[in-house]
Design goal:
Elements: E1 13-18, H1 20-24, H2 29-37, H3 42-50, H4 56-65, H5 72-82, H6 89-98, E2 102-110, H7 111-119, E3 128-134, E4 141-143, H8 160-164, E5 172-178, H9 184-189, E6 192-195, H10 197-206, E7 211-212, H11 216-230
Parallel strand pairs: 1-2, 1-5, 2-3, 5-6, 6-7
Antiparallel strand pairs: 3-4
Helix pairs in contact: 2-5, 3-4, 6-11
Enzyme class: hydrolase
Function: Dephosphorylates 2-hydroxy-3-keto-5-methylthiopentenyl-1-phosphate (HK-MTPenyl-1-P) yielding 1,2-dihydroxy-3-keto-5-methylthiopentene (DHK-MTPene).
Protein name: 2-hydroxy-3-keto-5-methylthiopentenyl-1-phosphate phosphatase
């Protein structure tokens, strides 16, 4: 944490925007899928995304275009079976229910693994924002149902700032939980940031207040501590 923050608001609706890959899950599933099937040239594309030489939409689209749609079943089966959920996620969801905190998944991941994995936790699909997929052509195509709006021009693919702007700050206290490049822009407009990995590095570079976490128990503990002080 870089400075004192109000973790939970007592006057506004608290709302969480939580990343999926590398946050809810231990591993980054997009990278894991591509690495597993190992099409030529994927390493350069991933590095270009991380270093922000390519936009997320451009880079992720290129990655999946390396895979033929004939591998659809293999790709989906591997993606779902490879997922490992970060410790404390169920407890985090229970905490949000008990304290009337709205919980949304805002993911740069793909529908064919995000929806089935989250279904077991009872998160409704209208609380999940992610990218889509198209297996009708020769190559896997990623679709982008949640593009950047008027206030963002970063070609995010699944634009987290655009989703967050639907929850105006006069009524909502916006909390972002994330780990990587897909969370950079959202972190800039969040009231509170919980970070790990690349997002922590970016917050430090930009001087953004943030709370580092390793698992969801860490996040719940921070919120509970603040709640206790408010009582």
């Amino acid at each position: 944490m870089t400075q004192q923050q109000e973790i939970l608001s007592t006057t506004k609706q608290n709302v969480i925007f939580c990343d999926f890959d590398g946050t809810i899950t231990v591993n980054d599933n997009i990278v894991a899928i591509i690495k597993h099937f190992n099409p030529p040239g994927w390493e350069t594309i991933v590095d270009d995304i991380i270093q922000q030489r390519k936009s997320i939409q451009e880079g992720v689209g290129e990655l999946f275009r390396l895979l033929p749609t004939s591998m659809k079943d293999e790709v989906i089966d591997y993606a779902i079976s490879n997922v490992r959920i970060r410790e404390g996620f169920e407890q985090m969801l229970e905490f949000t229910r008990q304290h009337d905190i709205e919980f949304y998944v805002t993911s740069g991941g793909i529908d064919f693994f995000v929806y089935p994995v989250l279904a077991r936790f009872g998160i409704p699909e209208d609380h999940i924002y992610c990218n889509g997929s198209d297996f009708t052509g020769d190559r896997i195509e990623i679709t982008w149902p949640h593009p950047c709006g008027d206030k963002c021009s970063n070609n995010c693919g699944m634009c987290k700032p655009t989703i967050m702007h639907r929850f105006p700050t006069d009524r909502h206290h916006r909390i972002l939980i994330g780990d990587s490049v897909t969370d950079f822009e959202g972190a800039k407009i969040a009231d509170v940031v919980f970070s790990r990995s690349h997002l922590t590095t970016k917050c430090e570079e930009l001087g953004l207040a943030h709370h580092e976490f390793e698992n969801f128990h860490d996040i719940v503990a921070t919120m509970q501590n603040k709640e206790a002080k408010q009582q």
